[in-house]
Design a protein that fits this description.
By secondary structure, this protein is mainly β. It contains three helices and 32 strands. It has helices spanning 9-18, 20-30, 169-172, and strands at 73-78, 87-89, 92-99, 102-109, 115-123, 138-140, 143-147, 152-157, 163-168, 187-189, 192-199, 202-208, 214-218, 229-233, 236-242, 246-250, 257-262, 275-277, 280-285, 290-299, 302-312, 326-328, 331-337, 345-351, 357-361, 367-372, 375-380, 384-389, 397-402, 412-414, 417-421, 425-430.
Length: 434
C-alpha cells in the first residue's frame, strides 16, 4: 500500500481507475529512462535551479487566482533530513536524505510519490548548522550525480540506483570539509561533472561522468558554499565558480583560470549561484556584504574585470544569504537579508542594469524562489508556499498557504507540479490553472 496522502480527487480517482494504463501513458509522455525528450514535449527540472541553472522554467498555464482552499496537494510522502533540493526528470524525482544513520539518494515516481529505489552513498553527516546532505542531484542521461555532506561524489544508474563510481573527492584531493559542510550541487556539462572542493590547487574539480576519472583540478581558494555554473559571459562560454573568497571564470575543458575577482565574506559564506546578465556576471552575498555586477574585457592572457556597479554593506540593495536571485526582463528578484545572518529579510526587485532598487516587500521573511509564467514561486523557511506576480510595478501576491514544516530547500517545478520538501516530508502540489 502506498504511504502517500492524496488530496486532489480528480487525478487520484483516475490513477486508481486506469491502473496499468496510467503507467503506460506516463512512459509514453515522459519516455523510458535514458530516452532524450524534447523541451517542447516535457518540462523537467533535472538539476539545482532547474533546466538552465537560473531558477527559471519555461512552463506556462500556471495558477492565476488562488483557490479557496489553496492549491491541491497531489501527494505527500515521508522523506528524511537534509538540505538537498529536488531534481525531476522523465517521471522520476530525486533527492538526497539522511535517515537511519546514512546519507542516501532516493528516487520516487514524480506523479504518485511511490518509491522506486534508494541507494546509500555514505554514513550520516552531522553539523551544528544542520545535519544531512546539502547538494541537489543532477540528472544526465542514464546517470544521476550526487555530492554528500562530507564531499563524496557518486554516479548511480537512473534506472535502478546501482552505483557506477564513487569518490571521496575532498579526502582524495587532500582537502578539508567546509565548516558548514560541502554544499555544492554537481554541474554536468557534456561528459563532465564539476564540483567545488576547496583543496590545495583544487577549488574546483572536473570528473568524467562515465568513469569517474579526474579530468582536471584548478584554483587555490576555499570552496565556499556556492555551486558552479556554465555562463556565456565575456564573449565566451565559461565555468563560473563563486568560491569562499572570490568569483572566477575557468575554461570548462581544461580548467584554465581565465579571471578571478576577490569577494571575501565572513566565514567564506558565498553561497548563491552567479548569474549572467547581458554578458556580465552578477554575484551577491549575505552577512551584510551585498552585490556586484562585473563586466569582462578579453585580453591576451585572459580577461580584465571591471565593476559596473556595486552595492555593499548595511545599506546594500540586495544581500543574498543563500538564495540565488531570479533575473527576469532586466530585473533581479531576490531576498535581501539584513545583518549577519539575522532573522529579517526583504523580498526585493532591483534594476539589474543600474543596481537601483525598484520595490521592496519589507520583512517578507526568509525563503527560496524560482520563476515561471510571469510568477515567483516561493517557499519560506516557515513552510509556506507563496505565489507572487513578477512585476516591476510592486509586490503583487496571488496567495499563500502552509504546506510543510520548516524548510531551507528551494522548490522544483515540473509539468505543472511544484515539489517541496523539509526534514521529514516531500510534497507535490498542483499549480496549474484549472
Amino acid at each position: 500500500m502506498s504511504s502517500r496522502t492524496n488530496q486532489r480527487p480528480f487525478p487520484v480517482r483516475h490513477f486508481h481507475r486506469l491502473g496499468y494504463l496510467s503507467g503506460v501513458l506516463l512512459l509514453f509522455a515522459m519516455g523510458e529512462p535514458g530516452m532524450a525528450q524534447s523541451s517542447s514535449e516535457n518540462h523537467d527540472w533535472p538539476q539545482f535551479l532547474g533546466p538552465n541553472r537560473n531558477g527559471i522554467s519555461s512552463e506556462s498555464g500556471l495558477i492565476e487566482s488562488w483557490p479557496t482552499d489553496g492549491p491541491k496537494v497531489i501527494w505527500r510522502v515521508p522523506g528524511g533530513v537534509g538540505m538537498s533540493g529536488l531534481a525531476i526528470s522523465r517521471g522520476r524525482l530525486f533527492t538526497l536524505i539522511q535517515k537511519d544513520g546514512k546519507q542516501a539518494l532516493i528516487a520516487r515516481n514524480a506523479l504518485t510519490g511511490d518509491s522506486v529505489w534508494e541507494r546509500v552513498l555514505a554514513p550520516e553527516y552531522r553539523n551544528g548548522m544542520g545535519n544531512g546532505p546539502r547538494g541537489t542531484p543532477a540528472i544526465s542521461g542514464d546517470l544521476v550525480l550526487a555530492y554528500t555532506g562530507e564531499g563524496i561524489l557518486a554516479a548511480v544508474k537512473f534506472a535502478d540506483g546501482q552505483t557506477v563510481w564513487s569518490h571521496n573527492v575532498v579526502s582524495e584531493l587532500d582537502g578539508k570539509v567546509a565548516e558548514y559542510g560541502m554544499a555544492c550541487s554537481p554541474l554536468v556539462v557534456g561528459n563532465r561533472v564539476y564540483v567545488t572542493v576547496g583543496a590545495p590547487n583544487a577549488t574546483v574539480a572536473s570528473y568524467e561522468t562515465a568513469t569517474g576519472k579526474l579530468a582536471w583540478k584548478a584554483g587555490d581558494d576555499s570552496a565556499g558554499y556556492s555551486s558552479p555554473v556554465l555562463l556565456d559571459v565575456g564573449g565566451r562560454s565559461q565555468l563560473v565558480v563563486y568560491s569562499g573568497s572570490s568569483v572566477m571564470g575557468l575554461a570548462p575543458d581544461t580548467g584554465t583560470v581565465l579571471w578571478s575577482h576577490a569577494y571575501e565574506t565572513n566565514f567564506d559564506c558565498n553561497i548563491a549561484t552567479p548569474l549572467a546578465v547581458k554578458g556580465r556576471v552578477f554575484v551577491s552575498s549575505g552577512e551584510n556584504h551585498g552585490s556586484v555586477m562585473l563586466t569582462l574585457r578579453q585580453t591576451d592572457d585572459g580577461f580584465h574585470v571591471t565593476e559596473v556597479w556595486k552595492s555593499q554593506g548595511a545599506k546594500s540593495v540586495l544581500r543574498n544569504e543563500w538564495q540565488t536571485s531570479i533575473l527576469l526582463d532586466g530585473h533581479l528578484y531576490g531576498f535581501d537579508n539584513v545583518g549577519a545572518a539575522g532573522p529579517v529579510s526583504h523580498l526585493t526587485c532591483v534594476n539589474a542594469e543600474t543596481g537601483e532598487r525598484v520595490w521592496q516587500k519589507l520583512r517578507f521573511g526568509k525563503g527560496n524562489l524560482i520563476a515561471a509564467d510571469g510568477k515567483l514561486l516561493i517557499s519560506t523557511t516557515n513552510g509556506e508556499l507563496v505565489v507572487v506576480r513578477a512585476t516591476t510595478k510592486g509586490y503583487d501576491e496571488i496567495g499563500r498557504a502552509d504546506v510543510l514544516g520548516s524548510t531551507r530547500q528551494a522548490p522544483a517545478l515540473a509539468n505543472g507540479r511544484l515539489y517541496l520538501r523539509d526534514d521529514s516530508e516531500i510534497v507535490c502540489i498542483d499549480v496549474r490553472e484549472p
